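BUG: 3D viewer hangs when loading the predicted structure for this chain

Environment: internal workstation, default settings.
Expected: structure renders.
Actual: progress bar stalls at 90%.

Input used:
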Amino acid sequence: MKAESGSFFEKLQELLESGVPFVAVTVVDVQGSVPQDSGSKMLVISEGHYLGTVGGGKVEKRAIEEAQSMLNYENGRETKFVSWALDRDIGMTCGGSMKLFFEPYNLNTWKIVIFGAGHVANALINLLVKLDCHITCIDSRQEWLDKLPKTAKLKTVLAANMPDMVKSLDEDSFVMCITMGHTTDKPILLEILKQGKKFPYLGVIGSKAKAERLKKDVLDAGLPAELQNAFYCPIGIDIGSNHPQEIAISVIAQLIQERDKAVKNAN
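C-alpha cells produced before the viewer hung:
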C-alpha cells in the first residue's frame, strides 16, 4: 500500500478515516549536519513507508523500523520522542543529531455497533465519525442505511433478521439498539442476553416506561433476574431535549464515560 499524490495532511486525514493503523513521524529538532530539516514529516504503515521523508537512507530506515515496532506493540497508543546522534546511533558520517516525534493513530480502535439506522442513529453516527472509532450500523432497510455518511469509519450491514447478527459481534464492542421500536429492539436485546455476551456498554433507546417493559421481557424469557440490570435504558446522560441531535450528544457523553471507565479499570 503506497500513497498516491497529495499533501501530507490530506493523506494523514485519509488514513485516519480509513482506520488503517499508522505512525506520523516528525523531525522536531536538528543539530549540525543532518539530511533533513526540522519540521520534515513521514507517514509509516505496518508494511513500511507510506508518504514523506525524514532524511532518506539509514536514518529513514531506522525511523521506519521504530514506527513499525510501535504498530506491532500491543499497547502502542503512546507517543514517543527519540534523539539520535547520527554517527553513534545510526552509523552515518555527517555527525549531526536529530530529535524525532512518533505519533501512532488508529490503534486499539474503539468499536461501536448500532442496530438501527433511523433519525437518532443517523444523528449519532454523524457525530461519532468525528471521533477515533469504528462504527458498524445494522438495519433491515437499505434506504435508511443509504442515508448514513460515506466514510471508511462506518460499515453498514443489511440484515433481514437483525438478532442473527449478534453472534458475530466482538465482545469489546459498545452496542446500542436504536431500531424502529420495542418490537424490533426486544429480540436483539434478548438474543444478546441469551448468548451471554458481556459488552462494555449495552443500551436500548427508550423511556423509563420502556425500560420497565424490557425488564419484564427479560423475566418472561426465562432469563436470570439480574440481567434486568445488564443494559442501559434510557440511554444517554440526563441532558437536553428529545431532538435527535441532542439525544446523540447525550448518548456520546455516556459512551465516553463508559469507555474511559473501562480503560481505567483495565489499568
